[in-house]
Design a protein that fits this description.
It contains 6 helices and no strands. With 152 residues, the protein is mostly helical. The chain has a domain of 95 residues.
Amino acid sequence: MKKAILAIALLIGVFGMAQKEGKSNRGGMKDLNSEQMATLQTKKMTLALDLSEAQQSQIQALNLENAKARKAKMEERKAKKEAGEAQKPTSEERYAMQNARLDQMIAQKAEIKKILSDEQYDKWEKMGHRNGKHRKGKGKNHKRGDKKADRK
């Protein structure tokens, strides 16, 4: 009897955890349009870097362009997935995608450098926006409470 109750409790726990995995952890960002995402990102940068009005408008334009590109790629992936055409890319396709992504990052970094002052640019670099430090996962080797992994 005790084993049956324990098994039922275990199954309920497993099914409960399985339901949570389907939800996105983006805080509703996927529901926003490109303009809204760009505006929020610009305001966050304004608060962090104390941007002038001219800088805000330039950053807004850059963020809007990037948000539109991200949204288009997301819609393209979604359409392929719904059509059943989604498949793993070949190594050449992965190389081309990675190369294009890095080229886009280099171009964005150059644009940001033109817009921001030297102090603001240094602070922006330290914020970790370009090297993925703002992501929650922080890579494969990240361990909770591991101070060495946090310092890298």
